[in-house]
């Protein structure tokens, strides 16, 4: 039986509300409901309507997640958390505002609570702006860290996936300098373990996990850096000793090419951009961000708030739709 799917609105001044409205206009979010601000969603519905057949898109306030299952086709069901900042729909789109960051965070927390309570099957988050989140006083750089903290603090990892690649990251929202320092044997091993467990849960019996090096040519035998020998190779050996089919460190410039042609089920990448560039280069419309290690299913589009095009009604909802489909698949497999 179809269960409600919680979709947090994202930053109200970015493209999140628009891609949600657009996806509902295309009937691509069955059972989904927006945890967000009613007037923000009405503004988004008005903005996408001319591009989606020119017919008005109904937006309805719902009282409980279950009500999402009864709304007519193309209707955008909205569950509005209490206490959202007033006047969000009057703020100009495409800019950093503390009120917008505060609203985005409140919607994520409410949506998460509904998933944790069992009222919704999974959480799909529309993009937030990290500077707006910080302006609102939130101590977390992004969803991943916020959700981790709200769920008790157990280790989590970010995975980006499309039909061709799965990439799991050792570190995410830190400077490159700090990311290099974060390449330690325990952190790499933990990433491999989390990736392996998540892929098994998703139905892959013995996941083949390629571990990327950090330095050019995976250090070229120590000529270009020591992290491979001192940190990454011992982590791979420990994973193998624990029965995980891990290999590496592989040269980072070619490992994604091999994974894409089917040699591996996932690549563990040493830092954010090493892993995300290959995935995003294959097309923003395909990528899905999944938080591994949480007690609930959370997915998100691979792109951000796209302030440069917010309000035009032309943002592509494909990655959001892919995120919702993946959330359903993962929730069904859990
Ligand atoms: N899941 C999330 O909450 C994510 C949030 N972000 C945050 O979003 C903010 C803006 O990040 P940027 O680096 O500017 O990346 P971005 O992904 O928002 O935009 C990069 C480029 O892609 C285009 N683009 C993005 N999504 C699109 C879509 N659906 N349809 C058409 N074009 C699209 C934008 O117009 C822009 O030219 C930052 O604060 C970043 O941290 C970034 C990635 C994911
Ligand atoms: N590049 C992906 C990204 O920054 C999204 O982070 P999060 O908000 O999902 O933690």
Automatic annotation (TrEMBL):
Question: Main EC class of this protein?
Answer: oxidoreductase
Compartment list: Cytoplasm
Q: What is this protein called?
A: 4-hydroxythreonine-4-phosphate dehydrogenase
**Family according to the record:** Belongs to the PdxA family.
Q: What more does the entry say? A: The active site is located at the dimer interface.
Q: Which domain of life is it from?
A: Bacteria
**One GO term of the biological process aspect:** pyridoxal phosphate biosynthetic process
Instruction: Give GO terms: molecular function aspect only.
Output: 4-hydroxythreonine-4-phosphate dehydrogenase activity; cobalt ion binding; magnesium ion binding; NAD binding; zinc ion binding
Entry note: cofactor? Binds 1 divalent metal cation per subunit. Can use ions such as Zn(2+), Mg(2+) or Co(2+).
Please name the source species: Rivibacter subsaxonicus
Q: Which Gene3D superfamilies match?
A: Isopropylmalate Dehydrogenase
The reactions it catalyses are:
4-(phosphooxy)-L-threonine + NAD(+) = 3-amino-2-oxopropyl phosphate + CO2 + NADH
Gene Ontology CC terms: cytoplasm
Coarse class of the primary localization is cytoplasm
Keyword tags: Cobalt, Cytoplasm, Magnesium, Metal-binding, NAD, NADP, Oxidoreductase, Pyridoxine biosynthesis, Zinc
Residues annotated to bind a divalent metal cation:
173, 217, 272
The entry's function note states: Catalyzes the NAD(P)-dependent oxidation of 4-(phosphooxy)-L-threonine (HTP) into 2-amino-3-oxo-4-(phosphooxy)butyric acid which spontaneously decarboxylates to form 3-amino-2-oxopropyl phosphate (AHAP).
